[in-house]
Amino acid sequence: MSTASSPVRELFSGFAGDRIAWFALWVLAALLLAALAAPWIAPQDPYDLAQLDILDSKLAPGAASASGTTYWLGTDDQGRDMLSAILHGLRISIGVGIFSTVIALALGIMIGLSAARAGGWTETLVMRIVDLQLSFPAILIALVLLALSGQGVDKIIIALVVVQWAYYARTVRGAALVELRKEYVEAAVCAGYGSARILFRHVLPNVLPSLSVIATVQVAQAIALEATLSFLGLGLPITEPSLGLLIANGYVHLLSGKYWISFFPGIALLITIVAINLAGDRLRDVLNPRLR
Amino acid sequence: MLSYALRRLLQGVLTLWVMSLLVFAGVYAIGNPVDILINPQADQAEIAQAVAQLGLDRPLWQQYWAFLSSAFSGDFGMSFVTRAPAVALILERLPATLELALTAMLIAVVLGIPLGLLAGLKPDSWISRAIMAGSILGFSLPSFWVGLMLIMVFSVQLGWLPTTGRGATVDVFGIPLSFLTADGMQHLILPALNLALFKLSLLIRLTRAGTREAMLQDYVRFARAKGVSESAVVRVHVLRNILIPVVTVAGLELGSLIAFAVVTETIFAWPGMGKLLIDSINVLDRPVIVAYLLIVVFLFIVINLLVDLLYAALDPRVRLEATR
Q1: What pTM does this model have?
Q2: What's the complex ipTM?
Q3: Which of residues 143-162 of B touch A (CB under 8 A)?
């Protein structure tokens, strides 16, 4: 499709105009690549116990092991290479963040569009539930869900979806109400199209740009929330250590001055979140027609 | 105003009821305290006796009814673990959490409004850019990691401040407070700073946006044309107009500070109700979890109600909008 390439090119030129956002985008791409390729580029499989040597435990960054490998970011209390652990942790953190956001987005779109179309008491009820949920902080809702359901990748994804869907539902419904009053919708109705077709083929494409900005920033929120919950011991299980869990593992050693076990996973988390936020900020400006 | 207040009050009560239902249903649908609280070595008779004692053998609606009616009298049952009333356990920890949250809010307001004002008045100066970069960082930094780094720098490396606990307290009307003793203050400062960071960034951004908008208004131009000095323009015309939304947001965010205190309290071992919640979750001490939730929801509703009413009292447009 030739029409699809021009907005994409516009998007890229919009990014290229802002050096910081352009840099953030590259960092983000590098992080995604590193997360995807973690099993192949990590110096060590951090969860293969056969590769770990307890004699290498708690080595400072840059120290060499007995067998000659250098641990650039040090090792944790089990002699695990922190660089490898961070690459694998990044994979889990980003994966959980993106996956939960995509599901929440899909759910929010379905519910928001249906509510806008249905109107009446259905809409009122749905929006009251959304209001109720958004009046409580996300962390409180996630804490409660995980306290009741226990740990696990599926549980944390469910919690993150429950926390996020309401934002999208509210945004989609608001934007859809505006769109539904426009003439092209009237034209589509006159053309005899069904309401599902009008909603998904006509209204949704017009609502998506503003949603994509929220979704981008929301991925960063989801990653931060997952890290916080894992740090509190309520998120991912020890078999799937995300960055938050790595930081929690280093907490006890922090007091004895062995900072690197917590410090470097935190830096990785920070860079990821800042890069997503900066790119999302720029995306909002590029997609906002009023600022052009 | 009165009808607006009454309607908001009714909404609050309804929310509380819905939450009690959700919390209760969630607990029963998913958790099973029998497995966790009763000794695995116990025989059938002992299990049955324990179940009867905890009321777990009655039908669900009866359990809910018993729960609801006793909740009205402030009785959320006994902690499964310590055998003390759940509400008493939480209320005992409430002052510590409130002290932490209010101190954090104070830090955020006292630093955030002047910094935001500065950034809004001179948006292109290097200091404004530094403030805004700092606020982006404050938004992005995961609060638990900041807490760890604060401990690392100020307690472990520099040795200036203690790492955990509440320090010495002084009883004021029977409520223990940390900030009145030097030792307590030293214990309070790091957790409060940690908790304040996110709200500080938020207030900086809000104040900056409000200031930039207000500076373009006709009333500012008119005041300047009238010959009012620049500092008076800022103090009287700009600050007054932006303070209403900023103070409203600060009030509404107080609830989220109490929720976020869970993280800060866990890191700094601050003996508040957030730490109690995490400890209770780890042993599935159901009455304490439920009591915490309902007390926090209650606090939220009261705070939101008060802020809404205050906002309506300050800004007549709000209540006109609501009654339309």
Answers
A1: 0.80
A2: 0.75
A3: 143-145, 148-149, 151-152, 155-157
